[in-house]
Design brief:
Blueprint (H helix, E strand, L loop, with lengths): L14 E4 L2 E4 L12 E3 L2 E3 L18 E3 L13 E9 L2 E9 L5 E7 L2 E4 L4 E8 L2 E7 L5 H16 L7 H7 L4 H11 L7 H17 L10 H13 L4 H17 L24 H9 L3 H13 L3 H5 L6 E2 L4 E4 L15 E4 L2 H13 L20 H11 L27 H14 L4 H8 L4 H5 L10 H6 L11
Parallel strand pairs: 4-5
Antiparallel strand pairs: 1-2, 3-4, 6-7, 6-10, 7-8, 8-9, 10-11, 12-13, 13-14
Length: about 475
């Protein structure tokens, strides 16, 4: 068989002879471009080999080693997502196309071309014990979830985690770990919790499912949690990340009636750092390098202490020109809610309000009335990137740090010392340092649900006359003479 055969159009009943074997071309069969290699009465095909059949010789059977398709869900495409659609007069299975946002929109890939086919049903496909298995999924919304679950099931099988049958569940009398996780994730699914929080909880609990060998919630012991914490360290996580994920797992188990597993010294210990702030020299250099619009944007961050998303979705009705306050309110059209689900007001200097009023007169109106929109009138998600470019333009890059993606600070806008939340740290620390407000008032301005989150800023707070009192103390005379 030559490569030119792949381009020929054989009639339905035409047969070809290869050595002593006779083959017939089936109309829907795709012939691989590379010729098959015959070894010990076995054909190995390179490429896609869906149908070289031996119709006339019943024995011995002609085996066919086919590579697994590299599309679908899970590492190395172990679980493929297919859709059975009608092309011409025949129904066939083709790879489904998953959109960049993780959704299915009835798109399939046919001979390298993406086509839309609303008809047909979805299937998931996987390999088990050397055999290909398929399962039909009726609801399109469940396809990706079923593929993900099958991938986790296969990973658990590979790691030696036994599967739970319905009979075993009934005999035990308790909830299985997998069902309890599914129920818990359903309870906290957005909008009940923030999407970012839901994703973090989902990743943590599914990681525990894939690594734990326990089948029932009641069977989870202290050793299982310690093993999960050790697994975090082996995966390259720091102590703070290991602590947060262990806390998620403990919260889940407590809601399912399992508590008191970890002792005080079992928890990962980490250093709680002092919150960094911008020094006056850095702020002066930053604002001197700013363009007018950048000056207003970053001074608003500094003087209000708003979070990134709060500033991103700030609208003109949130700016109170009479009372000199900025409001943080929910924006249902953007699916944005204030953190801790509480709207608030933050007083700002009159100079900032005057700058807002002047800026409003020079800016074209947009349909969403955003204060800092993109050119298309949409929320701007690049505030932090703009800050890093500004720091580089002002010559403030440290030149030594490297980002987690391997980007060097000396070669671009990647300095880790400049980030938006640092304006919030500076806002809180300076107000405490200058005695502008008490800790409770600052808690309200920052939108913290508990006082402990606000008290971390007391570490860096320094009174104005503190340095003078230290220099005037009796211990200061023992300092080395210069």
């Amino acid at each position: 068989m030559k490569e030119s055969c792949a381009k020929e159009r054989w009639p339905s009943g035409l047969r070809r002879t290869l050595g002593k074997r006779v083959y017939r071309k089936v109309p829907w069969v795709r012939i691989p471009l590379s010729p098959p290699i015959i070894e010990n009465k076995r054909v190995t095909c390179y490429g896609v080999c869906h149908g070289v059949y031996n119709f006339l010789t019943p024995t011995p059977k002609l085996g066919c080693t086919m590579p697994k398709r590299n599309f679908g869900y899970g590492p190395s495409g172990r679980v493929n997502i297919l859709k059975k659609v009608k092309v011409g007069d025949a129904w066939s299975l083709y790879p489904a196309v998953v959109e960049s946002n993780g959704k299915l929109k009835d798109k399939v890939r046919i001979k390298g071309i993406v086509e839309v086919h609303p008809e047909g049903q979805y299937f998931i496909e996987w390999w088990e014990a050397g055999k290909r298995r398929r399962e039909q999924i009726v609801d399109r919304l469940e396809v990706l979830e079923r593929a993900r679950r099958k991938s986790l099931e296969m990973e658990g099988t590979r790691l030696g985690v036994p599967l739970v049958t319905a009979t075993e569940k009934g005999e035990h009398g308790g909830a299985t770990l997998r069902d309890a996780v599914a129920d818990y994730l359903e309870d906290i699914r957005p909008p009940q919790r923030e999407k970012k929080t839901y994703v973090a909880y989902k990743y943590c609990l599914e990681q525990f499912l894939a690594t734990s060998k326990k089948r029932f919630v009641a069977d989870v012991k202290r050793e299982d949690l310690l093993e999960f914490i050790r697994h975090q360290y082996k995966s390259g996580c720091g102590a703070r990340t290991a602590f947060n994920r262990a806390n998620i797992l403990v919260t889940f188990l407590k809601l399912n009636g399992v508590s008191g597993l970890l002792n005080k010294f079992d928890w990962p210990s980490f250093v709680d750092p002092i919150r960094p702030i911008y020094e006056p020299e850095e702020l002066t250099a930053l604002f001197n390098a700013c363009r007018p619009a950048e000056h207003l944007l970053f001074s608003a961050y500094l003087l209000s202490g708003l979070r990134d998303k709060e500033m991103r979705y700030l609208t003109w009705p949130d700016v109170d020109f009479r009372r000199n306050v900025l409001r943080v309110t929910s924006k249902p059209m953007w699916d944005f809610r204030p953190k801790d689900k509480e709207e608030r007001e933050v007083p700002v200097p009159g100079g900032l309000i005057a700058a807002f009023k002047q800026f409003q007169q020079t800016q074209p109106l947009n349909s969403h009335r955003l204060v800092f929109p993109t050119l298309a009138g949409l929320p701007d998600t690049n505030h932090e990137l703009k800050l890093k470019w500004l720091a580089r333009r002002a010559g403030l890059n440290c030149g030594t740090c490297i980002s987690r993606h391997g980007n060097k600070c000396s070669r671009g806008p990647y300095c880790s010392k400049f980030f938006l939340h640092k304006f919030r740290h500076t806002f809180a620390t300076r107000h405490l340092q200058d005695g502008t407000c008490d800790i409770r008032t600052l808690q309200t301005w920052l939108g913290h649900s508990d006082l402990a989150s606000t008290m971390v800023y007391l570490k860096a707070a320094r009174n104005k006359d503190l340095l003078q009192r230290i220099n005037a103390s009796g211990l200061a005379e023992f300092a080395p003479a210069v």
